[in-house]
Design brief:
By secondary structure, this protein is α+β, with helices and mostly antiparallel strands. The protein has one domain: Histidine kinase-like ATPase, C-terminal domain (Heat Shock Protein 90), CATH 3.30.565. The chain is built from four helices and five strands. α2 runs antiparallel to α4. The longest helix has 23 residues. The radius of gyration is 14 Å and the shape is globular. The N and C termini lie far apart (29 Å).
């Protein structure tokens, strides 16, 4: 998060919320870091294109049953329907490159999330874009 804040310093506000704060998921830390950085970078770049850089990115982490859900919401233009549809496909079914305007970042996110037994999807939002990443929770009981 700090890297993204520095990259878009002074133009895009980043906020973080995690409930519960002691959430533990099962995922490779390097893969998860790359996914989060790609999503934050995409959100910041979308805002820069749409609003000249002035906007907000919100990261929310919560539980949903036996999964942790990380949502990256931004005030950019949102994702085209074709990119949202391809993002939901399992790796190998659709192209790695999900859309020319998004580069390879979302395709890489999709591969890494699936490799960690998770799912990635775009959620409908009236304004901006929302990407949700669902990963299994660790059994810490």
């Amino acid at each position: 998060m700090r890297l993204a804040q520095r990259r878009f310093q002074g133009t895009t506000a980043f906020t973080w919320r995690c409930e519960p704060s002691d959430l533990v998921i099962v995922a490779d830390p390097t893969d998860l870091s790359r996914v989060v950085m790609n999503l934050l970078t995409n959100a910041g770049e979308a805002i820069a294109l749409e609003h000249g850089g002035a906007g907000e990115v919100c990261v929310d982490v919560e539980t949903d049953g036996d999964h942790g859900v990380l949502r990256v919401k931004d005030s950019g233009p949102g994702l085209p329907i074709e990119v949202r549809r391809r993002l939901a496909e399992a790796p190998g079914q659709g192209p790695t490159r999900l859309g020319a305007e998004k580069g390879q970042g979302l395709g890489i996110c999709r591969l890494l999330v699936h490799a960690n037994n998770g799912r990635i999807s775009a959620e409908d939002e009236s304004e901006g874009g929302v990407i949700a990443v669902r990963l299994p929770l660790a059994d810490v009981g």
